[in-house]
């Protein structure tokens, strides 16, 4: 390695180090601002501890943004439907909007009902346990992001709450039935996501890509697929993204229309499906002429077929981010809201009001974490598991919406992270399955070619040996010997190259096994790892405070 190369590497390392310090500085500035504001935000006697809990909540929110949001925009980036900068901009806007507009004004203090708050000895230990849960969830997400493993932030905070609860009141505080359901989601979520994503990809291939006249197939089928997507996402957004502000939406509709709708706490499946159906019909009527017009300038290629799914993918990334902001901001602010409520009222509540400043910590923290540290996981999700194009990414987005709808109605516990990654696994393994026959035929052809080349080399070596055995060689024989030597040498190189190519062909996989194993391992240990960290932090806090 010459001095010029070493200098370049040093300059690159220096720039990377400066970038890392800048990111860390911005993140620390945000947490210090939260500490300063929280210290004076509430007129309570224990505002020091509230400020500390707020910092841990900010840290958790930063790590949610760095890790979890990648699942919403990663496939769009991997398929080139969005640039990294465009994806981050869209995610920041819609994550923040989802949190502030539809995040609700009340949050459950005990995530998923996994522990019984009545079994805490006193309010103080409950506060310590929730604070430990926030810190543990954030630390675990930080570790997972560092190693490039997309994990469930819900499971991270569930593990944190469980570990803090066990440390405070023993194993009897945990609802093990609920924990069993959460463990089941490790299998249910990715399997459902994989099946639905693979199903959509196969259907699109059969109805468009495998057709002789792809342009006619595009005109007919693309508006249908986009309408199905509109139906799924409108239903998904109604059931999951707007559920916390549904009464307010109904009141607004009653106020501005002649209709009088019954005010209910959350949207029913029928309401979601109805809104989805209306959205799908409107989408079809709008998209069909647009596709017909666009198809006039398209060629009969898979690349042009993919291009028609670019805009739907951008909408999918935005809507998934909005729904994520509305729902998963609670992972950052739920325990913090619980601490604030317990400090203010000196009692433990199963539901707590969310002060605006607490909601802002969650929303801004998620957006900031995504902007600063999100690209690493976005690249992992978008390109390091399997190669994605627009149609494959579209299938993953469909799986993300439809799986949540089905699972929520059946009462099955699912993780949006596991669904998205499972969908990516699904499209990758489907590609492997569909290509098995073709790949095997190529391998057999290459093996036959190698055998033929070896046979030819062997015949040439036999001829060379025969010619060399002659005591007196004619001019023609000497010329032939030279030709044979050159031919045999060339054949050796060709066979060597063919063997290398065959070896690569046999090893070729559409899904990176190392990435799959790393991600699955991280999923399995998320709850216990967060729980152990939380228990440790609880004991540290307790020893400091007592």
Helix-strand layout with pairing:
Elements: H1 3-41, H2 47-67, H3 70-78, H4 84-102, E1 106-108, H5 123-146, H6 153-169, H7 176-209, H8 214-241, H9 246-256, H10 269-295, H11 302-307, H12 310-345, E2 351-353, H13 356-384, H14 390-410, H15 416-468, H16 475-507, H17 513-545
How would you characterize this protein structure?
By secondary structure, this protein is mostly helical. The chain folds into two domains: 41-213 and 300-425 and 516-545, no CATH class; 438-507. Helix content is 81%, strand content 1%. It has 17 helices and two strands. Strands 1-2 form a two-stranded antiparallel sheet. Helix 5 runs antiparallel to helix 17 (513-545). The protein is globular, with a radius of gyration of 30 Å. It starts with a helix and ends with a helix. The model has no long low-confidence stretch (mean pLDDT 85).
Order of helices and strands: HHHHEHHHHHHHHEHHHHH
Helicity, as a percent range: over 70%
How would you sum up the major sheet? Answer: 2 strands, antiparallel
| DSSP summary, beta strand count | 2
Q: Determine the structural class based on helices, strands and strand pairing.
A: mainly alpha
For the record, the count of structural domains works out to 2
Low-confidence stretches: none
Radius of gyration: 30 Å
Helix count, DSSP H or I runs of 4 or more residues: 17
Globular, elongated, flat, extended or rod-shaped: what is the shape?
globular
- The residue-averaged pLDDT reads 85
């Amino acid at each position: 390695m010459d001095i010029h190369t070493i200098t370049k590497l040093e300059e690159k390392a220096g720039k990377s180090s400066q970038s890392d310090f800048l990111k860390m500085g911005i993140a620390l500035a945000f947490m210090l601002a939260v500490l300063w504001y929280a210290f004076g935000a509430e007129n309570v006697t224990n505002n020091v501890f509230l400020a500390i809990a707020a910092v841990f909540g900010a840290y958790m929110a930063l790590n949610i943004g760095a890790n979890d949001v990648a699942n919403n925009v990663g496939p769009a980036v991997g398929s080139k439907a969005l640039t990294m900068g465009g994806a981050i901009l869209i995610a920041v806007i819609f994550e923040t909007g989802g949190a502030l507009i539809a995040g609700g004004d009340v949050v459950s203090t005990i995530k998923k009902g996994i522990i019984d708050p009545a079994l805490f000895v006193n309010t103080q230990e409950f506060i310590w346990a929730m604070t430990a849960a926030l810190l543990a969830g954030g630390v675990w997400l930080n570790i997972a992001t560092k190693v490039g493993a997309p994990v469930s932030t819900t499971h991270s905070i569930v593990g944190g709450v469980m570990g803090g609860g066990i440390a405070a009141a023993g194993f009897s505080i945990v609802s093990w039935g609920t924990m069993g359901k959460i463990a089941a989601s490790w299998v249910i979520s990715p399997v459902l996501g994989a099946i639905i994503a693979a199903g959509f990809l196969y259907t699109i291939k059969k109805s468009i890509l495998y057709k002789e006249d792809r342009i006619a197939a595009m005109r007919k089928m693309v508006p249908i697929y986009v309408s199905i997507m509109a139906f799924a996402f409108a239903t998904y957004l109604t059931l999951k993204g707007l559920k916390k502000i549904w009464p307010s939406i109904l009141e607004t509709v009653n106020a501005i229309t002649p209709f009088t709708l019954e005010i209910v706490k959350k949207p029913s499946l029928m309401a979601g499906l109805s809104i989805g159906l209306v959205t799908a019909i409107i989408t079809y009527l709008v998209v069909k002429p647009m596709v017909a017009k666009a198809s006039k300038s398209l060629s009969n290629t898979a690349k042009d077929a993919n291009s028609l799914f670019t805009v739907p993918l951008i909408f999918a990334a935005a809507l998934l981010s909005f729904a994520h902001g509305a729902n998963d901001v609670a992972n950052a602010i739920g325990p913090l809201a619980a601490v604030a409520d317990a400090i203010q009222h000196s009692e433990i509540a199963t539901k707590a009001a969310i002060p605006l400043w607490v909601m802002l910590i969650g929303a801004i923290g998620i957006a900031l974490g995504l902007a600063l540290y999100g690209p690493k996981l976005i690249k992992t999700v978008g390109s390091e598991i399997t190669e994605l194009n627009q149609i494959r990414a579209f299938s993953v987005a469909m799986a993300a919406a439809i799986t949540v709808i089905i699972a929520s109605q059946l009462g099955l516990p699912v993780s949006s992270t596991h669904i998205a990654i499972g969908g990516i696994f699904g499209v990758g393994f489907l590609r492997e399955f569909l290509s098995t026959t073709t790949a095997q035929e190529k391998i057999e052809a290459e093996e036959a070619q190698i055998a033929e080349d070896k046979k030819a080399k062997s015949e040439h070596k036999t001829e060379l040996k025969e010619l060399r055995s002659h005591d007196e060689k004619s001019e023609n024989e000497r010329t032939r010997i030279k030709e044979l030597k050159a031919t045999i040498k060339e054949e050796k190189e060709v066979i060597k190259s063919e063997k290398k190519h065959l070896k690569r062909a046999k090893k070729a996989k559409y899904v990176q096994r190392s990435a799959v194993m790393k991600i699955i391992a991280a999923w399995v240990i998320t709850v216990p790892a967060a729980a152990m960290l939380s228990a440790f932090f609880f004991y540290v806090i307790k020893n400091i405070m007592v």
